[in-house]
Amino acid sequence: MKRFFVVLLTTLMLLSTFVLFSCGKENNDADDANATRMTIDINPSVELMLDTENKVVSVTALNDDGAILIAGEAIVGKSAEEATEIIIQLASDTGYLVDGEENEVKISLSGDADALEAEIKNKINAKLDELDIEGKVTALEAMKLEELRALVLESSTYTEAEVKEMSEGELYDALALSRVESALLLTEDLRNAYFSAKEYDISFTEREETAKIIDEMGTLYEVLNTGYKTLLKAYSEALIAIENYRYDNLIDPECEYQMLLTRMRDAKIELVQKKNELAEMSKDSDEYATELESLEKLEANYQASIEAYESIGQMVNSYIDGLLTELKAIEAELIKLENEFSDDIKSELESKASELEAKMNEYKDSYFEKFKAEHSADIEAIENELLAKKQALIESKNSDKAE
Question: In the beta sheet, which residues pair with residue 111?
């Protein structure tokens, strides 16, 4: 776990730097952003958030193959060009870039990044030449504004109203902040669990502090506060139920979802291995024709494993959506009651606003530590499995070359 804490310290330092860059500045468009979003898609797909000097502040896997590729890698702090070279080398080492095939590497960069895009293209082409791998580089458009808003909304604790008011530049900076904060969470499921839990936990804790302030105002407000606390208890129980269900059905290594994920990863590894075996064979041989049939079967098996994995994921998330609807109904009742607070309660809450804000900021700052304490074993287990899958791919590629 030593590496875990070293990386955590690094990401928190970078997070603080980004906060300093972002405060006191209004962004009007993407050119004003401190952060640049860069993606590299070889399937694996990876996202890199860059600072104003084009240094990497976060690396995020955009699919499961991407999670395997970046597991255990020290890419944060590298230049965009250095990071690109590392990713292309890793894709070659693991067999995702197949010798003898026309590989395509897709890239995208946000904002006015024509010069950097040209450098990245040159770096990729040079690396492909060095590795003696056929390939082409395709530049894609950056994410559309509404897609970016949706990504920030699901990857942070900003409200829909707050995200709607952000400029494009502010959205990229907000995304960078959230990516740095969740840098140790290598899978999308774990990141979603983190931000969802954080959002509702903060809401509950803030209201709990509100109830304490009303308590201190004396017995005159006891009846009103009892109703408020009853709703808070229901809110807390609903929140716990959601997080328990999410953990039991999406995160727990023994759950069906994780077992299907492992099966999908195994099917993908077999498929990648077979592609690389075929790359070493003569296309005119009888053996090649036989192995080509095997490849088609493996492709069908992989697609079936994806469908099974996605199906259970959709079912679980649909149930969670239902639980969230119930939670939001309780929240609506809390908001209604808060709107009906008497003027003296509102005045007291306003007088304690600075004190409440300080407590909430402290809670927000410590939230990752809380989540880590609850899930450190899961985080480590996920990384270990990804590293094992990655090592299997590397060993298979080396074996094919040796033969």
Answer: none
Selection from 269, 267, 290 nearest residue 278 by Cα = 290
Q: Is the dihedral angle over the CA atoms 151, 155, 160, 166 positive or is it negative?
A: negative
* Residues whose CB falls within 8 Å of the CB of residue 134, separated by 6 or more in sequence, listed in order: 100, 101, 102, 103, 128
- The span from the CA of 157 to the CA of 201, in Å, is 10
- Residue 152 neighbours by CB under 8 Å, 6+ apart: 158, 163, 166, 171, 174, 175, 178
Q: What's the alpha-carbon Rg for the chain, to the nearest Å?
A: 24
Cα separation, 165 vs 168, whole angstroms: 10
261, two tokens: 């994920």
Model pTM score: 0.85
| Domain boundary assignment for the chain | 2-181, 188-402
Tens of pLDDT, residue by residue over 257-269, are: 999 999 999 999 9
Residue 250 has, within 13 A of its CA and on its CB side, a CA count of 25
